[in-house]
Give the backbone structure.
Amino acid sequence: MTKVVLLCGGYGTRLSEETAVTPKPLVEIGHLPIMCHIMNSYSHYGFKEFFIALGYKGAAIKQYFMNFHYLLSDLTIRMKDHQVQVNKSGCEDWIVHLTDTGLNTTTGGRLHRLRSQLQDDTFMVTYGDGVSDINLQESLDYHRAHGKLATVTAVKPRGRFGTIELEGNSVSVFKEKVTAEDSWINGGFFVFEPGIFDYLSGDQTELEREVLSLLARDGQLAAYRHEGFWECMDTLRDKRYLESLWEGGNAPWKPA
């Protein structure tokens, strides 16, 4: 079974309205933490063993999964002796490993701390705050076909603001939140071979600025292009946008 790592240790400072009390991966979209939306996407393609790299407010994430079975089930509770009977379980058949990887550890450092659990086979990595309709099995197949150590998913970001074309003082064209046609960014869905650990040296190794740059220099980084839906929940505006899609029944990342 291909293992999946979720990097869930950051402070989430740009979403401080929520993260002051809740770690970002537990911030809810449609009454479900965003990390569970992400895990549902992987589970849809048969990837059901997860390694959660914890840091900021990691205890809250541990508590959530400790109670996960009860939170998603119908229960009968005998209050006198606190006996709990599960009447209908809505739980997934996931295996979830929860590991404290340090409060101020960087993304590459968190991955480095999981080395002993990941060094035997190809594995997948993502962040705890981004959703997409990416075909994760296809991305894994693509990775295995090119033979490099690493694959990063390249996505086209949604425009944050509307664009205006002017003729004098008159608006000739208004386009709301267009996507830049030629811009590709790191979409945060990775596939790695164990050889990646040769590029990781400790807690302060940065996956994005350091490791990916070295892999590219060595010809060991390929891009899987995804032109479909992708959104990262960085700010309150992003959260509200994702909630509007979910509540409107138009969430592209929701498995069919």
